[in-house]
Amino acid sequence: MGPFIETLIGGLMAGMLYSLIALGFVLIFKASGVFNFAQGAMVLFAALAMARLAEWLPRFTGLDGKLLVNVIAFAGALAVMVVVAWLVERLALSRLVNQEGITLLMATLGIAYLLEGAGQMLFGNDIYKIDIGLPKDPMFLFEKTFEGGILVSKEDLYAALIAAALVASLSLFFQKTATGRALRAVADDHQAAQSIGIPLSRIWVIVWSVAGFVALVAGMIWGSKLGVQFSLSLVALKALPVVILGGLTSVPGAIVGGLLIGVGEKLSEAYLGPALGGGIEYWFGYVLVLGVLLVRPQGLFGEKIIDRV
Amino acid sequence: MLYRENGQFKTTYAADSQILPIRQDRIAMMLLLIAAFVVIPAVSSEYLLRAVLIPFLILSLAALGLNVLVGYCGQISLGSGAFMAVGAYVAYNCQARFEGMPLVVSLLAGGLGATVLGVAFGIPSLRIKGLYLAVATLAAQFFVDWACLRLKWVTNDSTSGSVSVAHLDLFGLPVESPQARYLLCLAIVVLFALITKNIVRGHIGRSWMAMRDMDVAAAVIGIRPVQAKLSAFAVSSFIIGVAGALWGFVHLGSWEPAAFGINRSFDLLFMVIIGGLGSISGAFFGAAFIVVLPLLLDKLPYWTGLPMDTATASHLALMIFGALIVFFLIKEPHGLARLWATAKEKLRLWPFPH
Amino acid sequence: MKKIGDVILDVKNISLAFGGVKALTDISFDVREHEIRAIIGPNGAGKSSMLNCINGVYQPQQGAITLRGRTFKGMSPRQVAEMGVARTFQNLALFKGMSVLDNIMTGRNLRMRRGLFWQALHVGPARREETEQRAVVERIIDFLEIQACRKTPVGRLPYGLQKRVDLGRALAMEPSLLLLDEPMAGMNVEEKQDMCRFILDVNDEFGTTIVLIEHDMGVVMDISDRVVVLDYGRKIGDGTPDEVRGNADVIRAYLGGEAPAAGAPAALHAEAA
């Protein structure tokens, strides 16, 4: 029982991190109807920015104190992401407005390549560290109930909490604020939103900036776990099934989807893995999503597509 | 002046529905085929054949297959690399496990293997649409990636995880030299292009396009969605499977599963979009773009004369690649085929401006 | 004098709802062979939904439809198509990526049998079949006078011509029952006259039964044999054009308020035209 709960908790926490990245996808899709394949590249770019800024700050300004350096680096990286968002909107998005879904998809893929190349050129392509003071030692819970206790990684726990906080605040943002309402209006119908005076380009810059913020937080957390390197951008491929499972347009869906896939992956790896030769995690999320979509083609919380003739 | 239809009247429906109704087009195609079959092998260097033309041909074939699915039938597939992989590995297993298996049979078997996977993934497409389907096809990609790596019987129990194909021969004639390999690929590509064009201009092709454009109306006309979608998946994956087998056998010689990973899928999709959705010639244009561009970008340091280490050069190349893709999609979202068609329209009027 | 035959389409107690929205409530009417039956009513009355039910696009929650003796509540659109029913659409639903010729050729799809193998080779049987069907489609193109634009992609044509292509595609199915959803919407007087001519010719020469949704009262009164009136998903009138014209409920639905006495037909005519 002990190992099962351990795996379960590990899965929940990993799932929370997937949700974080999935959130970036959902945000952009909700507000601009674009499926942003560049989200992974954005995570990498943001993480690189923060890692390098944190490194350069002490070197060039003599600032000390880890907290201060990290905060300034975070703010700096956020500013960079806002600039990226503005550039993407100006140069690419505004000119691709009326194209079909697949064209937009491929355009974001092009942007992904651009960001990956630019990130590595500007910030370097080694493995960098982000140290935001997350404790690396594990802790043992319920030592009395289960023998040896349940091993929980403190780092993962803090990460999950940060992710949860972010997700909660974003949900509130969408539901309760005027800007959030405007974003939802834009997602529903671009032209109608424009005709009631919602400034489309500004909304898109805001959305991509928020997605950049989410990417930064995700990059910060994953980066402190794994180190900041090129493979970070591949983490987005893990989040795709989460996005689809939850339904492309649903924030709570991204959360539930993330948890389900996180847990599913870890449990299947632990229990099915040995029978099939290991490495199941690689495709489990996707196959799970495929199964769900067969039953519910719009994902768990997505909007049902009705064809009117 | 040169490119006019004057005097070319068609008196039968059969004549009107030819692939190339305008005489000048037919002459141009004749010349192109002669150049491709006779001139190019004679004058091209080994490098040109091995590094440019052969990959171009094989990837054109794969892009052709993908265009059938994405361009003509409107189903987005992100897992085409998996179909290439299945084609390659099935063909390999045929070759390796059965003594004296003819090359053609192995290639076709590869295609059929991919077809089985394609139809299996076509079934979800009956319920799942659009972006949801796109991500579902990634399940194929990752599953096949994993299977080729972990399931021993796929690689015929190879210890290193990579497989290789020894000498190739076609009905007894060795296919070793670059020229021979080039001609083999060319013959297969031309054959498949012709077959695909024929299918696409018949009622099956029309049913695909109807499903793409408006599937509810298509059903009302009597088109069976199941048949249309599954046949598109079947034809598409067969072609991609054969391309995958060719890629492994003729171009790579020996390969690992990573050769057919997700970057390959993205590359194929780029080819289809940039070449032009729903166009046979588009597959060729797109493949040319995607094959030639990285080669040009690799030479960047040399051309700009700037001192650059290889890492920076490759990052710059990646950036330019991405930027060009975005630029292209903004300028001509319907792809190079549309640009070509527009150019031909202008040529019809030449030397008059309008 | 046209001979109107027996009932070939019998709609009984059809009710259709989308979630909480009741599109149709307890609709019953019949259609006789060779006649032109119009369905009229204010916007949102459920006319298109009614056609969609006959067509198999929507499955009604209640009621039954009897077509040539076969009763069904929900058939797939293809099955209905195989029974000889074709339709046009209010919003065209043409295949924008294909030419006029190809669009109409899709209407022949049910009759094209040659499989993948022959299609790939495009010789012999497949080629013959293609040419035969092309001949049929060309006759329809001649009939609808759209020869000049047969190779043009449909998306580039003006609206009136697109409507003709839609009709052509339905005619290509050689239907015995043709459902037309506002075939004259958005047309000027000349275009309407052309379309009327086509509809009457089809009915005349081929004996096709026609069910027609239309807003133009002049057209309805002129060409239809019988009329069904819907309002808010309910049937409020059924009979010959003259009978319906004098029906108080119908007048009220279109004009609102009290029904004026003597001048009613003219007012109805003017209001809805």
Describe this structure in words.
The complex is a heterotrimer of chains A (309), B (354) and C (273). By secondary structure, chain A is mainly α. Chain A has one domain (2-295). Helices cover 72% and strands 3% of the residues of chain A. Chain A is built from twelve helices and two strands; from the N terminus they run H-H-H-H-E-E-H-H-H-H-H-H-H-H. Chain A has a two-stranded antiparallel sheet. In chain A, strand 1 (138-141) and strand 2 (150-153) form a beta hairpin. In chain A, helix 2 (39-61) runs parallel beside helix 4 and helix 6 (178-188) crosses helix 8 (200-226). Chain B has 354 residues and is an all-alpha fold. Chain B has a single domain (46-349), classed as ABC transporter involved in vitamin B12 uptake, BtuC (Orthogonal Bundle), CATH 1.10.3470. In chain B, strand 2 and strand 3 (173-174) form a beta hairpin. The longest helix of chain B is centred in the last third of the chain and has 28 residues, at 225-252. Chain C is an alpha/beta fold. Helices cover 40% and strands 23% of the residues of chain C. Chain C contains eleven helices and ten strands. The longest helix of chain C has 21 residues, at 124-144. Chains in contact: A-B, A-C, B-C.
Order of helices and strands of chain B: HHHHHHEEEHHHHEHHHHH
Count of DSSP H/I helices of chain A:
12
Instruction: Output the strand order for the largest sheet of chain B.
Output: 1-4
* Low-pLDDT regions of chain B: none
Radius of gyration of chain A, rounded?
20 Å
Keywords:
heterotrimer, B: 354 residues, mainly alpha, ABC transporter involved in vitamin B12 uptake, BtuC, two-stranded antiparallel sheet, 4 strands, 72% helix, C: 273 residues, alpha/beta, Rossmann fold, 2 domains, six-stranded mixed beta sheet, four-stranded antiparallel beta sheet, 11 helices, 10 strands
How are the secondary structure elements laid out?
The complex is a heterotrimer of chains A (309), B (354) and C (273).
Chain A: H1 2-32, H2 39-61, H3 66-92, H4 101-123, E1 138-141, E2 150-153, H5 154-176, H6 178-188, H7 190-195, H8 200-226, H9 235-246, H10 251-271, H11 273-276, H12 281-295
Antiparallel strand pairs in A: 1-2
Chain B: H1 13-16, H2 23-43, H3 46-72, H4 80-97, H5 103-122, H6 130-150, E1 163-164, E2 169-170, E3 173-174, H7 178-200, H8 203-213, H9 215-221, H10 225-252, E4 254-255, H11 262-275, H12 280-298, H13 300-304, H14 310-331, H15 335-349
Antiparallel strand pairs in B: 1-4, 2-3
Chain C: E1 7-18, E2 21-32, E3 36-40, H1 47-55, E4 62-67, E5 70-72, H2 77-82, E6 85-87, H3 100-106, H4 116-121, H5 124-144, H6 159-172, E7 177-181, H7 189-206, E8 209-213, H8 217-223, E9 226-231, E10 234-239, H9 241-245, H10 248-255, H11 264-272
Parallel strand pairs in C: 3-8, 3-9, 6-7, 7-8
Antiparallel strand pairs in C: 1-2, 1-4, 4-5, 9-10
Helix pairs in contact in C: 3-6, 5-6
